[in-house]
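Ligand: adenosine-5'-triphosphate. Inputs:
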Amino acid sequence: MARNIGSRYTAHRVLGRGSAGTVWLGEGPDGPVAIKVLREDLAADADLVARFAHERHTLLGLEHPHIVGVRDLLLGDEAEGGDLALVMDLVRGPDLRSHLAACRRLPPREAVSIVAGVAGGLAVAHAAGIIHRDVKPENILLDTSGPEPVALLTDFGVAQLIEEPRRGTAGGVVGTPDYMAPEIIEGLPSRAPVDIYALATVLYELLAGFTPFGGGHSGAVLRRQVTEKAAELPGLPPALWELIQQCLAKSPASRLRASELASRLRELLPALDGLPALDLLDLEAADHRMVPEPAGAAAALPALPAEAEAEAGTPRGAVPLVRGAVPDEERVTHTRMRVPDAEELAGGAHGTARVARRPGQPRAGSARHSAALRRRRLAVTVAAAGALALVLLLVLLLALG
Ligand SMILES: Nc1ncnc2c1ncn2[C@@H]1O[C@H](COP(=O)(O)OP(=O)(O)OP(=O)(O)O)[C@@H](O)[C@H]1O
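Predicted complex:
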């Protein structure tokens, strides 16, 4: 049923729902629009409405072919009925999450082209001092009305406007764990590199079908974001992998700027022509997401070596893994541990990260992997014993003249 929003807009039907509200297909003075009506409790929050009013200029001013434009902002009285609503350009097509769910993995050229466009949008926003803070496939819409799909980033700054005050009171981190840069988890302010980290995570996910550090309890995901290294994706052109790695750097200063990322990705496009989506094993990705981290998992985390503990003195605060992070004495944190070694990263006794394997390659820590290790050890022992016997025989022959 149609519903009026403010004096200028009519909402016709629901396009989708998110955590902050409902998005409607609507009509305005200049034609069709998408109208995001924020939840009632948010609209009733006077501070929140004031923050939106304060950011009106910024929200309305951001224009780029890869950013969903905000055309109007309706605040309280203006929206008649107390709605808080964002009127946006209508994007005709699915969001990237649904597209990925349908394709499972994207061919490298498509993935890189989408991410290059979004990086271009971020470059303009960052130059204007605006940080998105919630880059993820749900916030990237695909306009499929033209000959080629066009990716558009939406929800600029909205997550932050809504969440900012709660962050202060709860003392926790806000965002989507799978895409959250280590410095956010470390309690540092979010600057432009957080968007680059999140976008590199999206690129990894488009290529692999899973995020580099996702799966299980969100606490475990946050821990991996800070301590683990993304598993390499077999079959990816090295230049592309290098770019992803650089943008997934734990240190924000080591990541590329959005404009550079956009141009480097565009340069790679011709070399990716015709490459199929990666042929990865299913890994444990799907099940991994479903299985909650065992309750005792935190206790099983590798402890700091005793000397390091003693050196730092007691009580010892969290180890800031990102330069400049202020250790937080209050929090029992995921940073209070050492970086796992290769075996752990590969999913051994403690590691929980997924590692991309070629078909036929056993998973580290699996029975097949252990059997292969045992066989290799036996072969080495037999070879060593043979070599020793040969040496003894030579010595004996020499001694006998
Ligand atoms: N400008 C738009 N044009 C067309 N459809 C849109 C537009 N914006 C959002 N939608 C649709 O509405 C759905 C809900 O969007 P919304 O931004 O509220 O939530 P979300 O980003 O999916 O999730 P969350 O807010 O929880 O992060 C989207 O998945 C998309 O299908």
